[in-house]
């Protein structure tokens, strides 16, 4: 049987019909990982014992005739910045090279309660800082569509693992595009939920006011199934929210789609523009009304985002000091322990952001930089609030270009940061967005970003699912 073509619902039905066992399914994917990893390098570690134990629990439930949750027995991968009790959680950093998670993240508790099978932890840019998965301290993940190109970042391992058929779904985290951009580069579906829709408890913090855990999968329907399993209020995360059941309830045939002119300007590659515009025209043919809109403050989003992210990262990463967590370098005094441990443990991009953030928060500069960035963020968020008064959804490209070559931007931070120019405004506004594969530039996938109102993930899934069928 070709497991790679089965959706989560089809796997669920096949397990109940005993077409195959959960153990057989888990073994298939573990074998796939062993076969593909030498080229793809999507995983930092695998958890075969845990996976087979979880698969056997599913098989026992089936044998006993017990009720089977939808995700039970479904093999998945977890970005290595989300805690899974007893497994290594390195955040792609030398400073946490041997760190084992002492507890489960809330999203993992919810997946385990569903009976999902955890195959292992996926590679990422160190502490989720980057756009290519080249900033991992351990390995560079390659794009399964072209091994000379990046899978995107920071959830590059999570996206590549699905594209290489090494798992059915995965969890990633998105601060400024880290689920959506790799989903676009690897030709899979990825959702950044509304800020607060999914608990951040057990997610290693990068920028606390922006970080969100979200799903990546082969199809919209699979992505929705995973999101439904992990969403909702968590008393352990004060920023999480009770998830409302309301939705726009609009299909493509009566939806008003906003197309922001600022997202189709200079810097957008012509082939990417053409693919996105074709997808928008297909939505229009299906009955959607297309309306040009303006999100005028988006031009400030990238500079605003990198000031806020660096500032929050500087504060969050202060805990990694060579004393409380992770590796520690011996030194004659405490200050030198700090400097040696952080100097050898952190990579170049992490150090860059810590230094930028510490400067932006320092005395005399806080008002000029961090506070001003937060004021600009309010204006960016208001742009989206105003836009959603007249439209139901917003369509934009995910990235100005498809996957770029390994090494092409790694030595130029500004070029790398520009990879996020179309995703960071959505993160700053806290609204949900899904990356949907809509075509290919040659052999390279291109994703379209479908943006919705706060907590309207169900509306996004509805129209994304319809568009997915139209595009074939």
How does this structure look, described?
The protein has 472 residues and is an alpha/beta fold. The protein has 15 helices and eleven strands. Helix 2 runs antiparallel to helix 3 (48-63) and helix 9 packs across helix 12 (367-387). The longest helix has 21 residues, at 367-387. The model has no long low-confidence stretch (mean pLDDT 96).
> Which strand order do you get reading across the main beta sheet?
1-3-2-4-6-5-10-11-9-7-8
So how many helices? Answer: 15
Helix/strand order: HHEHEHEHEHEEHEHEHHHHEHHEEH
CATH domain fold name of the domain at 3-230: Amidase signature (AS) enzymes
Which residues sit in consecutive blocks of at least 5 with pLDDT less than 50? none
CATH superfamily of the domain at 3-230: Amidase signature (AS) domain
Shape: globular
> Average pLDDT value?
96
How many DSSP E strands?
11
What is the distance, rounded to the nearest whole angstrom, between the alpha carbons of the first and last residues? 22 Å
Strand share of the residues?
5-15%
CATH class of the domain at 3-230: Alpha Beta
- Category from helices, strands and their pairing: alpha/beta
Helix content: 25-40%
CATH architecture type of the domain at 3-230: Alpha-Beta Complex
Rg calculated over all Cα atoms:
21 Å
Q: What can be said about the biggest beta sheet? A: 11 strands, mixed
């Amino acid at each position: 049987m070709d497991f790679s073509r089965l959706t989560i619902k089809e796997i669920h039905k096949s397990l109940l019909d005993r077409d195959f066992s959960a153990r057989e399914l888990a073994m298939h994917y573990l074998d796939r990982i062993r076969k593909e990893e030498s080229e793809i390098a999507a995983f930092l570690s695998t958890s075969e014992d845990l996976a087979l134990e979880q698969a056997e629990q599913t098989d026992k439930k089936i044998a006993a005739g017990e009720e089977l949750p939808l995700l039970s027995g479904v093999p998945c991968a977890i970005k290595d910045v989300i805690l899974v009790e007893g497994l290594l959680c390195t955040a792609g950093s030398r400073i946490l090279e041997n760190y084992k998670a002492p507890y489960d993240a809330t999203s993992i508790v919810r997946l385990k309660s569903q009976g999902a099978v955890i195959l292992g932890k996926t590679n990422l840019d160190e502490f989720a800082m980057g756009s290519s998965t080249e900033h991992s301290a351990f390995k560079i993940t390659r794009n399964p569509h072209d091994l000379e190109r990046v899978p995107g970042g920071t959830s590059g391992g999570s996206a590549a693992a699905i594209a290489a058929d090494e798992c059915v779904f995965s969890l990633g985290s998105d601060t400024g595009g880290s689920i959506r951009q790799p989903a676009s580069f690897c030709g899979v579906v990825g959702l950044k939920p509304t800020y607060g829709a999914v608990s951040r408890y057990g997610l290693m913090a990068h920028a606390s006011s922006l970080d969100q855990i979200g799903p990546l999968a082969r199809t919209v329907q699979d992505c929705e199934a995973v999101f439904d399993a992990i969403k909702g209020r968590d008393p352990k995360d004060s920023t999480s929210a009770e998830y409302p059941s309301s939705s726009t309830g609009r299909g493509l045939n009566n939806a008003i789609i906003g197309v922001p002119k600022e997202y189709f300007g200079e810097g957008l590659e012509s082939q990417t523009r053409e693919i996105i515009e074709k997808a928008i025209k297909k939505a229009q043919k299906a009955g959607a009304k297309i309306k040009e809109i303006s999100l005028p403050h988006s031009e400030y989003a990238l500079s605003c985002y990198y000031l806020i992210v660096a500032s929050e990262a500087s504060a969050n990463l202060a805990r990694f000091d060579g004393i409380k967590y992770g590796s520690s370098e011996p030194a004659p005094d405490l200050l030198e322990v700090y400097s040696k441990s952080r100097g050898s443990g952190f990579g170049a991009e992490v150090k860059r952001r810590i230094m930028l953030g510490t400067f932006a928060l320092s005395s005399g500069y806080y008002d000029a930089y961090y506070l001003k960035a937060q004021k600009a963020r309010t204006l960016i968020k208001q742009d989206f609030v105003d836009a959603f008064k007249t439209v139901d959804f917003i369509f934009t490209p995910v990235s100005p270009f498809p996957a770029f070559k390994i090494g092409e931007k790694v030595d130029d931070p500004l070029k790398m940061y520009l990879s996020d120019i179309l995703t960071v405004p959505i993160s700053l506004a806290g609204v949900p967005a899904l990356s949907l594969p809509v075509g290919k530039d040659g052999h390279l996938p291109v994703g379209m970003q479908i943006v919705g109102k706060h907590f309207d993930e169900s509306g996004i899934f509805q129209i994304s699912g319809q568009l997915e069928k139209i595009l074939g």
